[in-house]
Write a structure and sequence with these properties.
38% of the residues lie in helices and 26% in strands. With 132 residues, it is of the alpha+beta class. Strands 1-2-3-5-4 form a five-stranded antiparallel sheet. β4 (76-77) and β5 (86-93) form a beta hairpin. The longest helix is centred in the C-terminal third of the chain and has 25 residues, at 102-126. It starts with a helix and ends in a 6-residue tail after the last helix.
């Protein structure tokens, strides 16, 4: 579904994991598509690795209102504040243990990944990540 969107020039080979990472144009910041069987949810999130968090997260937080307006969704910003890796996430109910739900879940993941990429990639490219 991601390849068919034409929005991602290169994708990694999928592996048997609960997540699939997609480049966002900058080392240390990427998209991650997830599937949670216990909570019956799928999600898309921007992942900020520890070496980028201190400089990137505050800049993105300043743009929170515009980002959420462009995505037409309220995002979960830094849901695990004690963890070193930070995320900006959106989840959707999906029982992936039921194969009949897969087309809808995959459709939501692909559509949301494209939207996240469209909204976040230009912002990530413009980030001034110099640590002061």
């Amino acid at each position: 579904a991601l390849q068919q969107s034409g929005k991602f020039p290169s994708l990694h080979t999928p592996r048997p994991r609960y997540w699939f990472d997609v480049a966002l144009g900058r080392t240390g910041i990427h998209l991650s598509l997830t599937a949670n069987t216990m909570d019956k949810r799928v999600g898309v999130k921007v992942v900020l690795m520890p070496d980028k968090v201190e400089s990137a997260l505050p800049i993105l937080l300043e743009q929170r209102e515009a980002i959420e307006r462009e995505l037409d969704a309220k995002l979960d910003w830094n849901p695990y504040p004690k963890k070193r890796v930070k995320t900006i996430a959106l989840t959707h109910p999906a029982n992936i243990l039921d194969r009949t739900t897969w087309p809808a879940a995959i459709g939501w993941l692909a559509k949301t990944a494209v939207a996240f990429h469209t909204v976040f990639a230009p912002r990530v490219a413009q980030l001034d990540l110099k640590l002061g």
